[in-house]
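dTDP-glucose 4,6-dehydratase (Luminiphilus syltensis NOR5-1B), 350 aa
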Amino acid sequence: MVTGAAGFIGANFVHYWAEKYPGDTLIAYDALTYAGNRNSLTELEDAGKLVFVQGDICDPDCVSQTLRDHSVDTLVHFAAESHVDRSITGPDAFIRTNLVGTHTLLAAAREFWLSGSGLPHRFHHVSTDEVFGSLTAEAPAFREDLRYEPNSPYSASKAGSDHLVRAYHHTYGLEVTTSNCSNNYGPYHFPEKLIPLCLTNILDGKPLPVYGDGSNIRDWLYVVDHARGVDAVLSSGEVGETYNIGGINEWRNIDIVELLCEQMDQLFSERPELARRFPHSPCSRGESAASLITFVEDRAGHDWRYAIDAGKIGRELGFVPEETFATGLKKTLHWYVENEPWWRPLLIRR
């Protein structure tokens, strides 16, 4: 059972799992809020490779019924409100989904697995590097044993959910694992985050907003590599342990935007037909996408730098990312160019 299965990372994980483990029964559980898109799963649904359940993780009856109906033995919990800007303007939804929702899942899993079915089980919780706070330029990357110092309502709500998962293991014996990942990018990404926002804005000839001077640093992880990392934890990770999944790939925001512009310029020069499909893009006129870069006022509580120390998962589980940033970004760019019917309707919701 995958919560948040119609969201960005959840959908990519479901596609990965269906291809690698075709004998498994996949339950895709999602409330289909603004960032959930069932179209991301259409191909798998049509092929009979998953069962879709539209449900809220805060609904204990729906969660419990889904666990029972499908004899779920593994729950991978991606569902979360995750956009920092939205958490600043409307934190209530983050507390409800990330804290109350996670507790609802844990309570239902405890009842079903420990008091009911007795199935061997695993509850895997997907968290973020943002729970550790912010790093200076010279500070070592986040390790699993660092103190939590969340700085936004989003990261605070995720930190709380991490603590709940840990508590259910130590108090009740629920078999859990947790992973903290760095910034993901790739296909099926709702176009409000930096990379898909810039990709779609370049194609439509709209400004590319960069906070402050663009010097904030993030570690970037291709979303399919993230799915591989979670797979490694489920297959070989130790119950009760936490694993950082990172891309070993730090970039300044402005450098990412400039690289995207360069790759889009090159793609338009190689494929003249794109000028007809995207006439508003400066690339269609032979101009550089970089002309769209616009610096905007920095957001409140903007953390300076995130970086993941992924040494533990590498040493203990043998996981290393397969994609470089250049190859992963190129795959992402091509996906958005070829899948306009997927993202175009989402711009209204954005």
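The first strand starts at residue 2 and ends at 3. The chain has a mean pLDDT of 94. ok done for today
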